[in-house]
Amino acid sequence: MDFEGIRLLHKVLSLQQIVHSRNGVYAEQNVRMGIFAKRLRERADQMGISNSEAARRAGLEERRYGHYIAGRREPDLTTLTKIAEVLQTTPNWLLGVAGAHEDDPEKAAFIDRFANAAKGMNAEELELFVIQAEAIAARKNAKGKEK
Known about the structure:
The chain is mostly helical.
């Protein structure tokens, strides 16, 4: 491709970016990457590991992982699943995608947090966790029947 062809291609791509920007595609992507960056930090904190340790466990350079933490770049699918595995969570949770099991996004986020917290527990702690959740649900059901 000659120089003139490259300039023309650049103009076309620039126009496509403007169109996408007006349609909200980039705004949506930026929001999703902001959620991704926040959740990477949040999950590493929950696990008690640094971002550099998370990067090391995922087999990534700290600089590259830093781009994800800052929301400047998005990982490919393979990298996303590797990071999710290292952080003992799901790619959907990292991206802020509500679970199919719940229509209410706020409730879905709590369920995901509940599941993430459970992954870091041993069997005894998990049993206590479930007993507490069941007691809260039973109490709510009993109150509902009284009314």
